[in-house]
């Protein structure tokens, strides 16, 4: 009897182990625990491509690639700068473009050509980029002199090209076949009130349009947000692109919404969406899709599943974030794709070649605040926990200079070195009610200092801490734990940033020896 019970326990435990192993080898939601909002996705043969929003960061309009919908790598950027002669984009004359720049993109592949389009509230224009070679370019650029909000470009089977856009009242317009311009007198109201399936008490009107055609039917995806509710997926269906359209709520769970659908080579369907997740940003989810009576049914019993029948994630490193020792071979690019500048950079004021193995940031103007400083070099933070560590050499700083490591958002935090009246000090600064407040400072007598920033996004804790070290071994906390709230003015998850700016004298510079990232928190 005892042997039989033991045998049954072995079978039970074996089953549990197999179940745990199966769960560990499946993809989990969120599929990317980092800020990748407003995704638009295509599949070409067995390869998936995705575009996303990075707003005021440059280079911009990132293109990511995956073979399994889970493990993504940065492939390229569509543009280096959106436009060059704009004070807001350039951080000139006290102006900035936080939370704006370029917004949600539309990604298409048609007749061997890749198309990615975006719009800008800064310039009031829409930009359509195209290329035959998605890895190497070049990208042809077409500019439409209107800003078509959250638009979706659509190539119909009859050769016509359309654009759907708007919020609440959705509109449609026809484009020239080469997408060089809009056709005159083709603009129409497509759906008068696209939010209606979610009721009358709406906080955010339907937007984020993405249009698809499956087996002869048209499907239009939107997000809406009822008051007192959560972000909600709305789908409209029609037999003809101009309607009539029938709409319904497609997903109302966890606030996961805004995106579209994608199929796999073996015939499965998924919906790609994102979720607001506090300070780390807006993070991607996938939900399985089944088809019933001509409608895509999202989720499992109307819920977003924790696990997916897809390969497990291998993590963000080195696919979307990456450590950098700043050593460059002749064949290397100056900066890996993981780096983006806050706003348009001044390329004459940085280098990874003037001193081998170092990033040099130079000053050529004075700025009164960190958020107006040029040439802050950034990477995404990520969840559930992450760290960024750098080494700063400060012997060539001038009086009034401030350089170091940031957690960049509207409510930013900084740790770095300040020069005041010829003396050096390590300082920790926090943005409090739009003011930069020095929380703690420590006198510094050497020219090389180690800096670290840590983020905890686990269960939306959204906290950050800063540390310094004089030898890279013994770390000291500096300042206080800060909150990392997601704010609409910046509309982006927190970013690690390397910065250097002058407040009194220009011409100084600092050298960063490396930037290392990790996913553990110092105890």
UniProtKB/TrEMBL annotation:
Keywords, ordered alphabetically: Glycosidase, Hydrolase, Signal
Domain Beta-xylosidase C-terminal Concanavalin A-like: 324-516
GO terms assigned for molecular function: hydrolase activity, hydrolyzing O-glycosyl compounds
GO biological process, one term: carbohydrate metabolic process
Active-site positions on this chain: 38 (proton acceptor), 207 (proton donor)
Signal sequence annotation: 1-22
Entries under SUPFAM superfamilies matching the protein: Arabinanase/levansucrase/invertase (SSF75005), Concanavalin A-like lectins/glucanases (SSF49899)
Site annotation Important for catalytic activity, responsible for pKa modulation of the active site Glu and correct orientation of both the proton donor and substrate: residues: 150
UniProt record similarity statement: Belongs to the glycosyl hydrolase 43 family.
PANTHER family according to UniProt: BETA-XYLOSIDASE, BETA-XYLOSIDASE-RELATED
Listed name of the protein: Glycoside hydrolase 43 family protein
Organism: Flavobacterium geliluteum
């Amino acid at each position: 009897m005892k042997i039989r019970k033991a045998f049954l326990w072995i079978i039970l435990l074996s089953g549990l182990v197999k179940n745990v192993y199966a769960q560990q080898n499946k993809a989990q939601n969120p599929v990317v625990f980092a800020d990748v909002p407003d995704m638009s996705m295509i599949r070409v043969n067995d390869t998936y491509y995705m575009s996303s929003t990075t707003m005021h960061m440059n280079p911009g309009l990132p293109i990511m690639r995956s073979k399994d919908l889970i493990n993504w790598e940065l492939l390229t950027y569509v543009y280096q700068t959106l436009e060059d002669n704009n004070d807001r984009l350039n951080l000139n004359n006290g102006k900035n473009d936080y939370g704006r720049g370029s917004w949600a993109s539309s990604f298409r592949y048609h007749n061997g050509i890749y198309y990615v389009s975006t719009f800008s509230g800064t310039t009031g224009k829409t930009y359509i980029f195209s290329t035959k070679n998605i890895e190497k370019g070049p990208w042809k650029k077409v500019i439409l002199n209107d800003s078509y909000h959250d638009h979706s470009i659509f190539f119909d089977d009859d050769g016509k090209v359309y654009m759907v856009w708007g919020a609440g009242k959705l509109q449609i317009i026809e484009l020239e076949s080469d997408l060089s311009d809009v056709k005159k007198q083709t603009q129409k109201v497509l759906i008068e009130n696209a939010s209606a399936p979610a009721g009358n008490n709406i906080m955010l009107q339907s937007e984020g349009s993405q249009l698809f055609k499956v087996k002869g039917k048209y499907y239009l995806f939107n997000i809406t947000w009822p008051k007192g509710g959560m972000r909600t997926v709305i789908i409209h269906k029609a037999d003809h692109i101009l309607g009539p359209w029938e709409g319904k709520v497609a997903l109302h769970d966890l606030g996961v919404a805004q995106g579209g659908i994608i199929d796999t080579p073996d015939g499965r369907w998924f919906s790609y969406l994102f979720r607001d997740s506090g300070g780390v940003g807006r993070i991607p989810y996938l939900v399985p899709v089944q088809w019933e009576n001509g409608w895509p049914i999202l989720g499992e019993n109307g819920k977003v599943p924790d696990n997916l029948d897809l390969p497990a994630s291998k993590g963000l490193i080195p696919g979307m974030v990456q450590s950098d020792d700043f050593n460059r071979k002749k064949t290397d690019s100056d900066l890996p794709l993981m780096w983006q500048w806050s706003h348009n950079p001044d390329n004459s004021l940085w280098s990874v070649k003037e001193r081998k193995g170092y990033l040099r940031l130079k000053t050529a103007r004075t700025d009164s605040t960190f958020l107006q400083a040029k040439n802050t070099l950034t990477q995404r933070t990520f969840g559930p926990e992450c760290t960024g560590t750098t080494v700063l050499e400060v012997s060539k700083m001038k009086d009034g200079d401030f350089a170091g490591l940031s957690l960049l958002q509207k409510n930013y935090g900084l740790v770095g070195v300040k020069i005041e009246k010829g003396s050096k000090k390590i300082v920790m600064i926090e943005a409090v009610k739009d003011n930069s407040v020095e929380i703690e400072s420590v006198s510094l007598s050497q020219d090389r200092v180690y800096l670290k920033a840590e983020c905890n996004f686990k269960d939306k804790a959204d906290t950050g801490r800063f540390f310094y070290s004089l030898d890279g071994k013994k770390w000291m906390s500096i300042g206080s734990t800060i909150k990392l709230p997601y704010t609409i003015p910046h509309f982006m998850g927190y970013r690690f940033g390397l910065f250097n700016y002058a407040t009194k004298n220009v011409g100084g510079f600092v050298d960063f020896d490396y930037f290392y990232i990790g996913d553990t928190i110092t105890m």
